[in-house]
Amino acid sequence: MMDFKKDFPLLCHRPDLIYFDNAATSQKPQAVLEAERQFYETRNSNIHRGPNFLAEEATVAYEGARKTVADFIGAAKPHEVIFTRNATESINLVARSFGETLGQGDEIVLTKLEHHSNIVPWLQLKERRGVTVRFLEVTPEGEIVMDESAFTKKTKLLAITGMSNALGTIPDLRPFITAAHRVGAKVLVDASQLAVHSPIDMQALGCDFLAFTGHKLYGPTGIGVLYGKEALLEAMPPFLGGGDMIEEVFLDHFTPAGLPNKFEAGTPNIAGAVGLKAAIEYIESIGRDVIHKTESDLTEYLLKKLSALPCLTLVGPKTSKNRGPIVSFTMKGVHPHDVAEGLSQKQICIRGGHHCCQPLMDELKIPGTARISLAFYNTSQEIDRCVEALQETYNYFT
Amino acid sequence: MDIYAQNVLDRYKTPFHKDKSIKPDLTHHEANHSCGDEAEVHLKLNGKKVKAYSWTGVGCAISMASADMLGDLVVDMPLTDVLKLTKKDIYDMLGIEISLRRSKCALLSLLALQNGILLSKKKEKRSWVDYHL
Questions:
Q1: B57 domain residue, yes or no
Q2: ipTM (interface pTM)
């Protein structure tokens, strides 16, 4: 197996650490750290406005990052890519901007698999504009249940996850996108986890909005992406107001800028965008197929080892089919927090709790799960060590 | 596993005060939604003192042990003294090092207890910031 750890300074500085919390955030390759540092050391300036050579260099760097992201997701035009702070802000942008056109009688369809970031903005929209919010059901295996009757001419938007951060399920989005489009509704896909583990082609996927975040994709924190179809973004009112998103400002009104600037108010995370570009280039240099194979093999191995522990129960999908390298489980008689603490004492980082999916945990009738989320730099030896530690933790508490 | 001293583990596995029927005068529930711990405390009063204590809840070992050990601390204590209990008193009671990430677990039952008393006196509830976390 290839040693990817050598590319990640934190993993080199802390060789005893077993980092199994990649769904929360990823570690950063040297290439990303170097790109950000290089930007600040050689090209730092504010972008877009400055009529000087350094501002132009910074602008080229930032817009170059936008082009890289657009190519990464198969967007038809770079200005369909809006930089935000994170996926949460991307979804909020749609809820606040596209949402302004909605009101009483309009419906938003979500699923019970969603992360709070793809639930709360819609509940806020309900409070603000009186829309109805409906939820598609989820099975104990973590599959979203198709319900055609949820999609009517009142439905204006389906917001759905591309991959569950809690259970690892990768739903087949096609029937849901088809059902939504059939009634004239738009579709937003929360690709925060999906973008990390699966290539995305907006032309093939066909959804109207896509949100993901840089820090889960081996990039820096503070940079996220909203993709929106050009015609939709053009019709939507601005989100945040201020510098850069305007054409003209008068004492009593303003005119907004064109895309993408309309949705990028104020100085953005320029270095973060440069870092995200480097992250995308890094994973493409390894090859998405290599990454996918490594992650699949590790997930298969992890599932096999966890299934062999009688004290554990897997939650969500039980096989490697239609799922990513995220595995949730419960331990008999031991709270997920204690499972995570027990592993933490042995230098293994996992997460325990509801994973920002309280409605999902309520539906599954559990307070939370322990969650292992892998990346391509993890190893089967780490999985072995983790499984030993899980058994030790169980023995300790019971 | 250093952070779980034997007494904490014992009280988690074999609580003294959990689910005891005491016909309470005062009940209050608090939850830590970020990790899924919940504690409900029940007090039977004798004038302005705690006569009996019981609790129920679900959560991690530290939150549950803390809820149980709190009963040892507060029985026969005047309510005014219960309101003066601090984070340090709870950490000393537990006798183990409480890291920042487990502080709410350790303090959840104290929050429930103190808020139950404050609400019964029609005073404002406390929140996590009041424990300087």
A1: yes
A2: 0.89
